[in-house]
Structure formats: structure tokens, C-alpha cells
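Late entry, written up from scratch paper. The run itself happened at the end of the previous shift, but nothing got recorded in the book at the time, so transcribing now.
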Amino acid sequence: MTAQMRDLAVMLVLGLPVAVAVAGIGGYALARRALAPIERMTEHARTITAERLHDRLPVGNPDDEMGRLAAVFNATLRRLEQSFEQMRRFTADVSHQLRTPLTAIRSVGEVGLRTGHRDESSYRAIIGSMLEETDRLAVLVDRLLTLSRAEMGQGTFARDTVNLTELAEDVVGHLGVLAEEKGQSLTVDATGAPTAVADRVVLRQALINLVDNAIKFTPAGGAVSIRVSGTDGTATLDVSDTGAGIPDEARDRVFDRFYRGDEEAAAGSGLGLSIAKSAVEANGGELTVARSGPQGTTFRITFPRRSSAERAATQPTAPRRASRPLSAPRGQRQ
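Output as recorded:
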């Protein structure tokens, strides 16, 4: 018995360290294996920056705890990516949208200075016109923010009955000086008094984008027109030019953000038509390319009629042409 006890003691003395070592090595191996996904996630997360928010953490097994944790992190990264993209788009939209009114303000000032001596009332009209544009700029920035939020499903718009003929004439008055610089005619051709239920400021900016685009791509001495019409079911705004038209391969992408189809378009930012389409659709309308060819291009905004009262306001009347005299002071705008 004593010999057996001695043998057992020797085995315990010699075997215990071995057992502890084996258990330690095994535990370390198991821990390393268990923590390997976290280490991979940590190393990958270190490489994700503001410019690489499209990257995602690796998900080994989506059903275990590590997989669910990685999925939560990836969902957070997705939301961050959307927020950053929305911020970038808003910054690009604002810089693009401010260019046209600022150019108009500068052009009005230049025309006022080079026309020669004017009386006090003329200078007041010019200064008043410029101040009016600055007020519109402030409203525009607010509406662009609203439009940006609406694209994320977070914004709301005013809902007013907009007289589309008056809106078209207002835009002609706003951009007439730009057409004048290129010797172009800029007119409104209205039939009846069609209306649409929309946010007037946002819709006005969409129409400004279309007309500004038409002026840009129409050669000197050409013509740009806005045709306003309506039926019992729809109200329509057609913006037509006498430019070279849109190439066939570009028509499907002309509304894509930042798309610029040719060398001439490369001078722009590729945002005007995209913003116009977003603005129209946010107000329940539709913006399409109605026609395009060597004789020019027509963009069409279509709105559904909203009430019988609005339909009654569109009884056919004699067609009329309205255009702003390009030499008139900007202070006479509507």
C-alpha cells in the first residue's frame, strides 16, 4: 500500500504540471480561436475612414454573437455612409444652385453700370431687384435643405396652388438677362391658366434649372421658350430650346447626378437636371425628355390636377404669348 501511495504521489507531482500546461495551452488556443473574429473586426475597423464608409466588417457566422455584433456595426456604418453622402450631396446642390442667382445679380449690376447715366428711380429699381434676389437666395437655401431631407424621407413641403403661367413669366424675368447676353429670345407661350399644387419656391427652382440649362446649350441668337398648357387631367410645362439636342447614348443618364455627357457639358457640375427632377418628383410631378434632336430639346414637367376647382380654372382661352423685354429693368419683374 505504501508503494502504491508513493507511486500515486509521484504521478501527481509529475502529472499535475503537465496537465496544467496542457490545459493552459488548450485554453489559450480556444480563446484565440474564439477571439479571432473580434481581432479581424478590430483590424478591419481601423481601416475604415470617412472616405471608406462603404467598407463593411467581415461576418463569419451571422447566427452567433460575433456575427450579430458585426451586423450591428455594419448597419451603423451604412447609416453613417448615407448621412455623409447626404451631406456631400447637399453641399454640391447648394454650390450649384447658388451659381445661377449670383450670376444674375452680378449681370444686373453690370448692366446697370454700363448703360450710362440713369435717374434715381432706375437705380432704385436695380438695387431693389438685387435685394429681391438676395431674399430669394435665403429662401432657396432653406428649400434645398428641405429637399435634401425629403430625399431621406424627413422633409415636408408647402402645398400651394401655383399658377404655372405666372411662375413661367417670373422665371423668364429672372433669367432674361442671361439670355440677353447671348442674344437669345426667351418667351412664355401660355394656353389657359393651368395650376398645380406644389411648393412654389422648390418648383420655381426646378424650372430655373431647366431654363438655365437651355440657355447654356443654345447657341447665340437661338430661342428658348416655356410653353404652359393643361387638360382636364394634367398641367404641363414644356421648356424648349434650339440647341444641338441630347445624344442618344446620354438620354438615359441625363438626370443622373454628376453626369456630364460631352466636352461642353463638362464645364458644368452635372447637378442641375438631377436637382430639377428631384424637386419636381418631391412635389408629385414628373420630369421627362419629351423630344430631342438636331432641332433642339424639350423637357416636360407634368402635374396631375388636384381638384375640380382647379380644372374649372383651365377653360380654354385664346393662346397668348408673354415675354419679358430683355432691355427692361430687372426691378419690373413679377
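The helical segments are 2-46, 65-114, 120-151, 164-181, 200-216, 272-282, 308-312.
(Scratch paper discarded after transcription.)
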